[in-house]
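Exercise: predict the fold of this chain.
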Amino acid sequence: VKDTFCDVRTKFAISMSSRFCGTCILLLTAGRIGQTFGDAQRSSLQSGLRIMKGFRRHYHSDRINGSKACDPGDRTQDRKVEAGRRVQLHRSLSKLGLCSRGVAWKLIKERRVLVNGKIMSDPLTWIDMQSDQVTVDNVVSERRKETRVWMMNKPRGLIVARVDERGRPTVYSLFQNQNFVEHASTTMTGDDKDGTSNEPWRFPVGRLDADSEGLLLFTNDGQLSQKLLDPTSGVEKTYIVQLKGVPSDDCLVKLSEGIDLDGKKTLPARFQLVEIFDGGKDGKTKRSRIQVQIHEGRFRQIRRMFQIVGFRVKKLQRVCIGCLTLGELPVGKIRELAKDEIERLMTACKIRDSGGMR
């Protein structure tokens, strides 16, 4: 028995080693081919990975085209996804404002979702949100009848997520507590509790980490969310950042021109010194407030940029997104945007209103 076990273990080790070596050889071979045909700026490994990703995209495209045909008797309503990028199918339903990713996963498994007229049963299938046509049954697709947007003054300490695995409080607790102002008619309904009402699904436009505060938008319109987050749309996000210490003019110019972050240079931005004041426990430590205006929103971007140049962010508040300012909205409160505010947002994003707005 011992000899048999050792033999099986040896065969397993040889099998795994062969697979690993085969994968490495395949990547390097593909990389050499890529370098030969005009990809000389990248290493062999980078070129190989790029080619393998292309094969993967082609594979998923074949899966969509080869799916089982739709039953002609199904009562469905087509929804053409007008803008976006390649995403997994269950995420695309969330971006359309139809439901959460968890609910979308269930709908797909129940074979109620189609892509280009073909029934899909795999939530992880990749689709192109610009060219592929997503269809769901009438009950789901009719839930999004109008574009709605909510503005929140996020306090520190809340996680921007529906549910946190570590049990930390999330921004959705403010919706559940009905912390609304100005629009008294805006109330919570079953959709925000158990998904049983016709109230549109709200999802955040971008993120603010737990230590950050300020303006956070929620919407049920996936296209509007995508445009607001897309750096090419030119929608500026303005932040007030409090630092320990005072950066020099040269340092702010360097940040404005862009610095390397995760191997990619940040886009040009605006960093302007607003105020210098005494802070710290002794009241003698110099601190500063910097106004930052950026178009992109990479993971903890502002904090990491200042860390690279030697400064620690003590406080970060977002005060403006495009034409929307935080104004006098109290911390922890929410208000629904009026129709003219949504129209200005859409104009800034160059979106034509193809449906209703609230």
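Check your answer against the key: The chain has ten helices and 19 strands.
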